[in-house]
Amino acid sequence: MSESGGANHDRANIVTETSGVDRLAGVPAVFGAVAFVVGWAIVFRWVHVTDVLAGVTYATLLSAGHVLAAVVLCAVGVLSTTGVVDTDPDDSTGLFTALAFGAIAFVGVGLTASQTFDTGAGVWLPASVVALVLVTVAVLSVPEDLGVTLPVAAFELVVGLAVLTDVIGPSWTWSPHGFSASFVGPIAIAAFAMVGSLLCVWAGTNASQGFGSRGRELGAYSLISTYAAALLAILVLLIVFVVQNGIDQVLKGAQLWPFKLPFVLNGYGLQYDVNGIFPAIVGTVWLVVGAVVFAVPLAVGAAVYLTEYADQGRFTRIVETATNGLWSTPSIVYGLFAFAFLLPRIQNNVTLLTGQLVLGFMLLPLVLITSREALQNVPDEYRDASAALGVTQWQTIRSVVLPAAIPGVLTGVILGVGRIAGETAPILLVLVREPFSASAPSVIGSFHFTASAPFVTNEALLSPATALPYQLFAVITAGVGASQEFGWGTALVLLCVVMFFYAIGITTRIYFRRKLRQ
Amino acid sequence: MSGASTTQAISRSFGELDWPARIAGLVGALSLIAAFAAFIVEPGAVVFPALVFVAVALYGWFAHQAETARSLTFLATASTLVILGVITVYLFVKAVPILRQMGASLLTSAVWDVHGGRYGLVTMMWGTLVTTIIATLVSAPLGVAGAVFISEIAPKSVREAVKPAIELLAGIPSIVYGYIGFVVINSYMMDLFRLPTNGSLFIVGLVIGVMALPTVVSVSEDALNAVPNAMKDGSVALGSTDWQTTKSVSVPAAISGISAAVILGVGRALGETMAATVILANVTQLPEPLYDVFGNTITLTSAIASQYGVAAGRPTQLSALFAAGVVLFVVVLALSVVSQTIERRMQQTLGGDQ
């Protein structure tokens, strides 16, 4: 790819204004942006392809848009290559772009040959390979302005005409051989809209800058920005969706004065007018507290040893590998381990204590990694200054290093707590006997001191409990229907609890990072 | 070598102590080992050595705080290793019976015959493989694109809002995804794609992919961010556009960090349990034909989560589930080691303390 532009054009060193082509190229770009949204709206079933807008169905509108975009792109390409408008294309389109178009041709020809004309692999495979090679070579052999616009225009024209002539209409279905799924017209039209729109946005914005390296930059940027916007939109929609479905259940019977929030503050049983999830909330709180009590001292201690005492070498590397291994171990494996190792040794039954321990095991590597990072981030000048004053190593650690690292450690703990609070798999096997319980475990009130071993007992710690994520799982296994509302409510509360921890953790981290940089 | 030097350092500091401290150290170490042994063999007796250890630690804290702190932090480090060790040992030990019974066919047979007591893991491994591939296809390209957007394209104000938002989204519990998948997406897919059964590998892959997205975005963005500004500035000074710099300098420089992020995402997808369990019907049969991603089968994780209850009374089936756990554990551990090696190499390449 040479960066020197087409030699037959006058090149201005500073591009001030591109002639009308940028406005023309805006047409496919705008169509692309609109079609992208409409495509998603069809997938989410906010609109249906046969719905009518201004007397025309969405299917027709979209396909007309495809054809229009194709015509305009063609025109832009031709205008640019004949020198009518002043653009700055390279001699050839990049290999990656050419291969991408080739791949689209491969898929298109392959699907048409094998499915529409029902040919065997002996026919469709060579045909699609030929299409791949032809398109790739063709795109590579023309100047960039044609290589960018014409393939996109061809794609747009084909899908636009296919829908417009009802070859692939709203009532079309396709059941590919060997797959259980069938593809129906609306989905195909939406897929065309999305792929076509991305291509249009890319080609349109590329052309609007007069091709060349500036065009490629804008093309790539607009493509990636569209991706990123879609990604964020999906994730935000997820949260909105849960809130929308769960809010009614959470606020059922709620009132401000006297304060009542029955779904959150009630248990589950006949004595309650609104069944609630209070026991599960308390169970989750105790699980988290137990895990923190178990894991944080261990993790911080280990982090101190690794950073302050140990020689950096094979030993620290082994521990590091082990911690990272522990961190990435699937949560269900922790559950299985607790089921085999802890369960028979603690009451031989499901207990709150086992749940706390297994979540503590999960929390340990997370806190260790972040604490270590925090300790390493404490500037060596602090340690040196303290040592220069004649302070011993331990006193330096206690009164200089640890206080300086506390924000980082705290952030790690909070983020870790957010993660384990939402975990279902590890406690699946070791915690719950009755997911929908009427009363919450009372851990503080259950300590009893005895004269014989083990001197302290706690009935609540050694009894089964329930937890928010498990409760959601139980709603699913109990079957949908009447309990679905209950599930959405639980999901919303769980989401709030976890998001709360994450929000605090991330905010403190940003705050302290900024402070550190000052 | 440095392990040895650690031991030397410990014995040196041990030699500097007076004799009550030496005895206390010995008693403390022995009581802790006894407590651990007691927990393995006779959990009821744990309390006695544990009390001794607490007493010794308290004595040490007040008489020799520095040495005690050092020993206690060392013990904390050791216990991390011990925990990983115990997890590994117990998984393997529990998986031995089925391995002895089935031999190598445990990993090559697709039979899951509860009544005949014959188990093979191929069905589960296939399910896990297919869902992981789909999830990676979803999360890797989108995730990297998202990272490039945040790190290279977005203006500063957008970046500062989007990055924490993405991290926040990484916290959505998997069971919530699973619930949405179970209640909404399953019926949607049955309706729109005319799937014959509730749940399919495709849906699971899609959901897990979306679930892994924030992690991939966030870690790849860290990698892109770690590319020294001097490298980018050099490229821009030569007259490249920002996109050329991104394409030819930033991404290649960060490629190992980005691949580590993708591997991390793959690890997440492999180990994801709840979404797979609640979305799939968990039938222990391979899809027919094999490549039917819209078919219904089971994954390693969902096999464990959905069958442990019925398996509690059947030692062989339980052992087979442990074998599934071992496969998961080994694969994920291997992935973790690979991604660490990549990351370490990246640090060496980018070099220095920039």
Automatic annotation (TrEMBL), chain A:
Residues 281-481 form the ABC transmembrane type-1 domain. Gene3D superfamilies: MetI-like. Belongs to the binding-protein-dependent transport system permease family. CysTW subfamily. It is a multi-pass membrane protein. This is Phosphate transport system permease protein PstA. The chain crosses the membrane at residues 25-44, 56-80, 92-111, 123-142, 148-169, 181-204, 224-243, 285-306, 326-343, 350-369, 491-512. GO terms for biological process: phosphate ion transmembrane transport. Keywords: Cell membrane, Membrane, Transmembrane, Transmembrane helix, Transport. One of its GO terms (molecular function) is phosphate transmembrane transporter activity. Its main location: membrane. GO terms for cellular component: plasma membrane. The lineage of its organism: Archaea, Methanobacteriati, Methanobacteriota, Stenosarchaea group, Halobacteria. It is found in: Cell membrane. It comes from the Archaea.
UniProtKB/TrEMBL annotation, chain B:
The keyword Oxidoreductase does not apply. InterPro entries: MetI-like, MetI-like_sf, Phosphate_PstC, Phosphate_Transport_Permease. GO terms for biological process: phosphate ion transport. Coiled coil: none annotated. It is a multi-pass membrane protein. Its main location: membrane. GO terms for molecular function: phosphate transmembrane transporter activity. Gene3D superfamilies: MetI-like. It is found in: Cell membrane. CDD domains: TM_PBP2 (cd06261). Residues 125-339 form the ABC transmembrane type-1 domain. Keywords: Cell membrane, Membrane, Phosphate transport, Transmembrane, Transmembrane helix, Transport. The chain crosses the membrane at residues 21-40, 46-62, 74-92, 126-150, 170-189, 201-219, 318-338. PROSITE patterns: ABC_TM1. Pfam families: BPD_transp_1. One of its GO terms (cellular component) is plasma membrane. NCBIfam families: phosphate_pstC. Belongs to the binding-protein-dependent transport system permease family. CysTW subfamily. Part of the binding-protein-dependent transport system for phosphate; probably responsible for the translocation of the substrate across the membrane. This is Phosphate transport system permease protein. It comes from Halarchaeum rubridurum.
